[in-house]
Structures are given as structure tokens and as C-alpha cells.
Amino acid sequence: MTSQTEFEPFAGIVQRALAGRDAASGDLETHPEYKAPRYVVNMCETLTDAIQDAGHPEVTLAEVLRMESTCTGADYSHKLAMRCHRLAHCATA
After folding, report:
1. Average pLDDT of the segment spanning 36-54
2. Which DSSP state fits 24?
3. Which of 24, 30, 53, 81 lies 20 to 30 Å from 62 when distance is taken between CA atoms?
4. pLDDT greater at residue 92 or residue 23
5. Which whole-number Å values give the CA distances from 58 to 23, 33, 34, 50, 87, in the listed order?
């Protein structure tokens, strides 16, 4: 199995978001535009920035949110970090 550290900084972003998902008031409320919890939208904004910084500047928040919604199950955080890593590095390959 692949190490989570291979998928940095994405794995760290996901882990921090999940660990703090109920820390701020309103984190669990649904975002009016994206129909996802606010902590998910905030996490995906940070992931979008990291993907863009890695060389894929055209990726959008909407794309990352769609990708996030396909990550389910016990390995949710692993899938999301891996898919973000792949998206970020497919543009630079």
C-alpha cells in the first residue's frame, strides 16, 4: 500500500480538515452554493490552491468538489489525497 506521505501536501490538508471539522461555528452547515458542508468547501478550496500551486492552474473549486464527492468509504481521506496528487501531477508530466 502507498504511504500517505507520498500524497503530500494533500493528505495533510485532508487530515487537518477532518480533525477540525466541528471546531468553528457553522462548519457542518450546508454551503448555499455548493450544497456540501462548509468544512468540505473550505478543505476543497485549500486543495484547489495546492493543486494550482503544483502546476495545474486551471483546476477549479467546482472540479475539486465533484472529485471529493466521489471519494467514499473507510479510505475516503486516502482516495481524496491520491486523486488530488494525480490531478496536480498529471499537468506537470
Report:
1. 96
2. S
3. 24
4. 23
5. 31, 20, 19, 12, 11
